[in-house]
Each structure stands twice: as structure tokens, then as C-alpha cells.
Amino acid sequence: MHKRLKQWMMAASAIMLFSNCNNGPVTYRNDTLRTGTIHISVDESFKPVIDSQIKVFESSFEGAHVIAHYKPEAECIKDLLVDSIRMVIITRPLMPVEEQRLRDTLSFIPVQGRIAYDAVTVLVNRQSKDSILTTDDLRQILDGTSKLPLRPVMDGLAATSTVRYAIDSILRGKPLSSKVTAATSSQGVIEYVADQKDAIGFVGVSWIGNPEDSAQLSFQKKVTIASLRCETCPEEAYVKPYQANIATLRYPLVRGLHYILKENYEGLGSGFTNFLIYERGQLIFRRAYLWPARMKFEIRNAGIDE
């Protein structure tokens, strides 16, 4: 009897060890698809829309609690190696070297996928005369060679997805100019542009693109959303980051929104992911004026004053 009890205790200890260690396969958690509590790390650029997703998800499943930590993108990626973080939401998929590191650490590769399309929105002060721009204009503003009287402000000088996008896609690998000002958040960028007549800011459309959201509507009254030259249009056109322009890539600064799920069983992380990729979650992205990546919606031609 004593021998059997000892064997049972050793087995229980082994189960506890594997459930708390991040270098082995996940075998047990106190959560299901619709119940439990999980922590996720989210790119701060998407706080408004992810807050909406969590609110609806939790109201649909009373036993579910998703606690979001909003951070710069680079910090979210680091959190993939933190035991308590079940999922991250950022603007890019994992690179092969990151997948391999996670395979070695977790004994499995996290599930990942694109859930929506976002746009980097360019903002200028309400009194600015320079609200119609090209990507070449933006490149020169960010590298410090522009003759336009505009001072750029970003949501940081490093580690954020907007800064990475500016360096990779606008500057094509060149560094930001020393003239670039760093705000502490996307909201900080909006407030800075509203206060400084010569400022030009860069934020995700999730922060300012929804005219049905009272907070974003108040932001829209403080700043002007710049029109950018469409690089794929047969005729010369300058467009704003409206949904149709994001969907058709007429707007030049479009990026994806990706989830990376660090879970190899049907837990609450899988339940929240299912919510995001299927109809209800996709409709929330649509209502937030991002473009859903997992559902097809019809785009109709209409007369829009850009």
C-alpha cells in the first residue's frame, strides 16, 4: 500500500512539473474553450479593437476571462517565452528562426495566422497645409531630408510595430532621422499632433479610423487624416485609409494583423482564437474599420469624398 501511494505521489509530481515548465509539451491547464483565465500580449497599436473583441467574447462566455497586456511589438514577441502568456497579437508572422526556437523550447510550434488588415494612418495638425502627400514625401520626412515644414512623431523610437513598418516599408531599411520625436503611445502621438502645428504623426487606423466610436470621433476633430497618393491606381489619386482602400490596397500603407497561439490543446486561447477568426470576431474588425482577413465581404463602388 505504501509503495503504491509513493508511486502515485511521484506521478502527480511529474504531472505538476510538466504543467509548469515551458520546455515540454502542454498536457494540462485549468481552462477550456469557454472557461478560465488567460493572459495575452497585444501590440499597443490595436488596443481599441482588441478591447472590443475581449468585451464581446467575455460577455458571451461568463466563465471566460482574457487579460490583455498592451506593449510594443518587440516586447510581445519576447513574451512568447513567458509561461503566463498564452497568445500574442502583432503585425507579422513568426520568422523561421523564431519558430525553431519555440519548437525547441515548447516542443511544438505555436499556431499562427492573419486575422485582419490594418493601415498606418498619417496625421497632421488641423492647421497644417500639408495634408496631401506621397510615400516619397513620407520617406524624406522620416530620413530628415524633406523640405516640408513637418516634424515626425512616432509611438516610440524602437521596438514598436509602427516604427518597424516605417523603417522596413517606408525607409526601406534606412534608420529614422534624429529629428523624429517619440511619444509614449498611439494616443500620445494623436495628442502631440493636435498640439503642435508642424507635427506629422503615424498611428494604426484602429486608433482613429472609426467614426462611430465616440473616443475616436473626438480624436478626428483634433487632427487631420492625411491623404496619400495611390500607387496602384491607373489615374492620379490621393486616398485616405478607408476600409475599401485597405481591402483593395489603394492605400499604400497596409499591414496585416496576426495571432500567435502558444497552446497545443483546446484551451481558452483556442476558444478566443476561434472567436477572432470566425463571423463574430471578423464583424467586430469590420465595424472597427479594419478589413477582415478571414471572411469575404463585397466591396461596392460608391462616390466617396477622399
TrEMBL record:
Alphabetized UniProt keyword annotations: Signal
PANTHER family: PERIPLASMIC PHOSPHATE BINDING COMPONENT OF PHOSPHATE ABC TRANSPORTER (PTHR30570), PHOSPHATE-BINDING PROTEIN PSTS (PTHR30570:SF1)
UniProt name for this protein: PBP domain-containing protein
Domain of life: Bacteria
Location of the PBP domain: 34-277
Phylogenetic lineage: Bacteria, Pseudomonadati, Bacteroidota, Chitinophagia, Chitinophagales
